[in-house]
Amino acid sequence: MKFEKVKDGIQMKYEVMENHQQLRKTVRKFVQKEIVPNIEEWEKNGFPNEIFRKMGQMGLFGVRYPEEYGGSNMDYFAAMTVTEEIASSGCAGLGMAFNVQALMATNPILKFGTEEQKQNYLAPSIAGEKIAALGITEPSAGSDVAGLRTTATKTDGGWIINGSKVFITNGIRADYQILIAKTGEKNGRPLFSIFLVDSNLEGYTVGRKLEKVGMHASDTAEIFLENVFVPDSALLGKEGEGFKQLMWQLNGERLIQATACVAGAQRCLDLAVQYAKEREQFGRSLSKNQVLRHYLAEMNTEVEAARALLYNTAAHYDKGEVLVKEISMAKLLASKVYYEVADKALQIHGGYGYMNEYPISREWRDARLMRIGGGTDEVQKEIIAKEMDL
């Protein structure tokens, strides 16, 4: 890994080998052509499925996956590079949807799936031909996984699933879900299993599209399952191993969320610096005001601290190390920095920052979710404390 100073000293970028630099240039070009011109429209009406197909054709979903399933077989930093560039577009809703497809929902298929499941779900997802969703959170249980009420009951040739899911990213458009359900008990404790559930099955109903504070470009839905039959081949991994599989999946989810947060924070900082240099008050630019200069200095420091922790953690994660505490730390810090930098950047914009026509207002709204999704700040602190033997 090398450290390369860019621009005029405002930020430090961490580049990893020449192929990552070329990948960054390619994705950035794609973002500027296919995403940036459409953001305002997508914020109003949601992004079209066609953008997923274009991302698939570009190979953006598969940079970390094996070539036999349509991937490029690159390292974790390649996946982070793609996430950073999409997050930097200013359309966090699309970025969230992309990450669910690229790493959160499909990664368990690669690790736990059969060859048939990989061919039927992973390969078409990498190609952008199928859209995936994660079916975890329920109306009565989010962070408390043990409280999940959706059940899967064994029957001849398969399972009958009953229950509901909520806050499901890509839920309206998904072709299938990676869904966790209770499948029994052992010693008085619930056992869970994970299933691949197609959205066109009888009894699978997509509820309303949920109205959110931010992330307007993406769809978030509630899902109802009433006597949904799935065959034995829908079971992902081993029966009763769902909780372990979910904890493994959440580690990867939190790390890529931290990546998006750092990229989002950098964008907020860039917007604030640009505005401070261009906006004049009392006969001079805002950047000459000591209070605002110190704001920007603190923001820059916070972003670089979060980036350093993220990249150090990712370097070890890429080697296959188990980093429960460090990933939770990276997610906690990055999501807080993203929101706090967005808030300060909006403050620097003054009244204009509160206007929808200024992109910082969207960043401010979008940033708030990141301290909730993938496990709240409080959940991350509990994980860290537990790993500290507290």
From TrEMBL:
Belongs to the acyl-CoA dehydrogenase family. It comes from the Bacteria. Residues 133-228 form the Acyl-CoA oxidase/dehydrogenase middle domain. Transmembrane segments: none annotated. Keywords: FAD, Flavoprotein, Oxidoreductase. Its cofactor is FAD. Pfam families: Acyl-CoA_dh_1, Acyl-CoA_dh_M, Acyl-CoA_dh_N. InterPro entries: Acyl-CoA_DH_CS (IPR006089), Acyl-CoA_Oxase/DH_mid-dom (IPR006091), Acyl-CoA_Oxase/DH_mid-dom_sf (IPR046373), AcylCo_DH-like_C (IPR036250), AcylCo_DH/oxidase_C (IPR009075), AcylCoA_DH/ox_N (IPR013786), AcylCoA_DH/ox_N_sf (IPR037069), AcylCoA_DH/oxidase_NM_dom_sf (IPR009100). Residues 18-129 form the Acyl-CoA dehydrogenase/oxidase N-terminal domain. Residues 240-388 form the Acyl-CoA dehydrogenase/oxidase C-terminal domain. This is Acyl-CoA dehydrogenase family protein.
